[in-house]
Design brief:
globular; two-stranded antiparallel ribbon; TIM Barrel; single chain
């Protein structure tokens, strides 16, 4: 049996100390009310992971403003104090069960397929998104052609993240994770083909990472030094799984180097398989580059439900924490099972997501 002891050591992210190194990845669920309020099913869902031994739970992406940020119908929000108060029920229940919880705060950018506030989408540039909407979450056909965000709208985006983080802090969340991955707005700014701007937000990698850095710094300033703030980064996107950074390791050096100096407590990298080479130039994973250039703690995500793979990334110093998506869905008690050397269930989408199920839960 593989020695998995490293998974059960305590670790700190900023001012938050976790009792182990295994977290639940943020997973889109679309199980809030249509007005973006938490439901009782969401409370029991998040609490079940805490009862199952996970040290950290990161919520599904939660929209940040009542303009362009909402991604899906029935996505939860953190725009209004009333929404925040409902989230407090989740926080209190998770804490009572012994885990820490971060809220992932998200602006959809060009990939919205269910916004109740406004028509249309914004993006760094008016570039047609690749692929088609996710039918899994109620979409169909091509994404809308977005309009290029103005400087005023960019300022509104930053304010949305700031206000969302402050609301999350006010109801007891242990931290927030800025969603900078998967093709949504911040990642669209980072993406060469999606960002055709000629101002300070476009062109070079340094310019394309600028908005991510500005959001990170603004959130940090708003919540103070003691509240944990991280960011999620990926190469692939929900509508372009195979995307890789054109500049390869040089891009990684710039992106992670800039983010490492932006006041963040951690970087959460997600790849299809976390341990695989990030680029075709060497055998190093994206997590390794995040550690090397960010110089802050790293969370790794991507098919790490095998305990030996998960513990290997910790033991080899590639990551400080690992998060599970499908592995957690199949085993809400994954941590307890691994600790007790019990067999794990395989992820079976058909069993977990019955056709008649109202709850949609899947890794984002």
């Amino acid at each position: 049996m593989t020695n998995t002891q490293s998974l059960f050591e305590s670790v700190s992210l900023g001012n938050t100390t976790l009792n182990n190194r295994v977290g639940v990845a943020p997973m889109t669920r679309t199980s809030a009310t249509k007005e973006g309020f938490v439901t009782d099913k969401m409370i029991s869902y998040y609490t079940s992971f805490a009862k199952g031994g996970f040290g950290l739970i990161i919520t599904e992406g939660t929209y940040t403003d009542d303009q362009y940020s909402q991604t899906y119908s029935n996505q939860p929000g953190i725009v209004y104090d009333e929404q925040a108060q409902e989230w407090k029920k989740v926080v209190d229940s998770v804490h009572q069960a012994g885990a820490k919880i971060f809220m992932q705060i998200q602006h959809t950018g060009p990939l919205s397929q269910g916004n109740r506030f406004v028509k249309g989408t914004i993006a760094p540039s008016a570039v047609q998104p690749k692929g088609e909407q996710l039918e899994f979450y109620g979409g169909k056909g091509p994404f809308s052609l977005p309009k290029e965000a103005t400087k005023e709208e960019i300022a509104d985006v930053i304010n949305g993240f700031v206000n969302a983080a402050k609301r999350a802090q006010s109801v007891g969340f242990d931290g927030v994770e800025i969603h900078g991955a998967n093709g949504y707005l911040l990642d669209a700014f980072l993406t060469d083909y999606a960002n055709q701007r000629t101002d300070e937000y476009g062109g070079t990698t340094e310019n394309r990472v600028r908005l991510l850095v500005e959001v990170s710094k603004a959130v940090r300033e708003a919540v103070g030094a003691d509240f944990t703030v991280g960011i999620r980064i990926s190469q692939g996107k929900v509508n372009d799984y195979a995307h890789k950074w054109a500049g390869k390791e040089k891009d990684a050096e710039i992106i992670f180097g800039q983010l490492g100096q932006a006041g963040l407590d951690y970087i959460h990298v997600t790849e299809h398989k976390a341990w695989q080479p990030a680029f075709d130039t060497n055998n190093l994973s994206l997590a390794v580059f995040a550690k090397r250039y960010g110089k802050i703690p790293v969370i790794a995500n991507g098919h790490l439900e095998n305990p030996s793979k998960a513990s290997e990334m910790i033991e080899q110093g590639e990551a400080d924490i690992i998060t599970l998506g499908k592995g957690a869905l199949a085993n809400h008690d994954w941590v307890q099972k691994v600790r007790n050397n019990e067999p794990l269930k395989e992820f079976d989408q058909e069993k977990i997501l019955r056709p008649d199920a109202k709850i949609k839960e899947f890794e984002a």
